[in-house]
Design goal:
Blueprint (H helix, E strand, L loop, with lengths): L4 E2 L10 E11 L5 E2 L7 E6 L4 E7 L16 H9 L1 E11 L4 E9 L8 E9 L2 E5 L3 E3 L2 E11 L2
Antiparallel strand pairs: 1-6, 2-3, 2-4, 2-11, 4-5, 5-6, 6-7, 7-8, 8-9, 9-11, 10-11
């Protein structure tokens, strides 16, 4: 085991608690930014003292399902809403000295992530949390996702 691994559960680490999403963008290797969930994405990231985590990110103003029943949404309604949402939960493993956290995904809206550890690099400045992904396929090309969070008080 890495010496910088912070054993979970714990009650004394800086990521503990709830975080509200303030910005989400994708950055290409050439430094170009795109905003796949628009300029005002919504989201919540939670790290508990029992070692569980949950992350939800959504494009603001996703289309309503006309029928009012998500089980009978049209194909277009389902696609637009699926493409505008990232949601998963599981346990986490904090590597403080190396500046990353592993999200051990139990269940996800994107089932390919289930059973897979998602590595997230973090930088914490006061109540501001910056999380980045390693280069990840998004929209058919490899990009880095950048998520800016603010602690919920």
């Amino acid at each position: 085991m890495n010496s910088d691994f912070k054993q979970i559960p714990t009650q004394d680490h800086a990521l503990l608690g709830a975080w509200r999403l303030r910005a989400f963008y994708i950055e290409s290797a050439q430094g170009q930014r795109s905003y796949p969930f628009g300029e005002s994405p919504q989201g919540l990231l939670v790290y508990t003292d029992t070692g569980m985590m949950s992350a939800q990110l959504m494009r603001d103003n996703r289309p309503m399902v006309e029928s009012g029943d998500h089980q009978v949404a049209t194909q277009q309604e389902m696609e637009e809403n699926f493409r505008g949402c990232v949601s998963y939960f599981g346990s986490y493993e904090l590597h403080v000295e190396s500046g990353f956290v592993l999200h051990h995904v139990e269940k996800s809206l994107f089932p390919n992530w289930e059973g897979v550890a998602q590595k997230r690099f973090f930088e914490l400045t006061g109540d501001q949390l910056r999380i980045t992904t390693p280069p990840t396929t998004w929209g058919g090309t490899e990009n880095t996702a950048v998520l800016l969070w603010e602690r919920v008080k």
